[in-house]
Each structure stands twice: as structure tokens, then as C-alpha cells.
């Protein structure tokens, strides 16, 4: 009788440990994914050139920004399905 009680208690401990472990693994996985995303964003936003040459990199970023804005505006002007009902500077 004592052996059966000890066996049931040990099964309960093992089961509760597995449940706790599963919960911790889910939280750890979510935390790892968030930290990985933050690290990738950090590397993506870094400048590629060393400090004496950062003006070149910043100029490139500015030109890319202007190009994207102009491209979006031209796309809006030349594609009527995009500007459906919009009033603007387009002919």
C-alpha cells in the first residue's frame, strides 16, 4: 500500500514538472523570437560604413528615401486604379 502511494506521488511530481516545463518552453520560445527580431532590426538599421564615411551612407539613405517617395507619387499619377477618387497634383 505504501509503495502504491509513493508511486502515485512520484507520478504527480513528474507530471507537474512536465507541465511546468512545457509552459516555460512556450514563454522561452516567444522571448527568443522577440530577442531575435530585435537583434535583426538592430543590424538592419546600422550604418554600413565606419564613422569618417558616414556622410556617404546618410546621403545614400536620403536619396533612397526621395526615390521611394517620387516612385510612389509617380505610381499614383500613372495608374488610375491606384488613385481611384483621389485629388492631387496628378494630371
From TrEMBL:
One of its GO terms (molecular function) is ligand-gated calcium channel activity. GO terms for cellular component: plasma membrane. This is Uncharacterized protein. It comes from Dreissena polymorpha. The lineage of its organism: Eukaryota, Metazoa, Spiralia, Lophotrochozoa, Mollusca.
Amino acid at each position: 500500500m505504501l509503495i502504491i502511494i509513493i508511486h502515485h506521488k512520484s507520478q504527480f511530481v513528474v507530471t507537474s514538472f512536465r507541465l511546468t516545463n512545457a509552459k516555460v518552453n512556450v514563454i522561452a520560445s516567444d522571448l527568443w523570437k522577440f530577442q531575435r527580431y530585435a537583434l535583426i532590426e538592430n543590424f538592419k538599421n546600422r550604418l554600413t560604413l565606419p564613422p569618417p564615411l558616414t556622410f556617404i551612407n546618410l546621403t545614400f539613405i536620403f536619396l533612397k528615401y526621395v526615390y521611394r517617395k517620387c516612385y510612389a507619387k509617380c505610381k499614383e499619377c500613372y495608374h488610375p486604379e491606384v488613385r481611384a477618387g483621389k485629388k492631387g497634383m496628378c494630371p
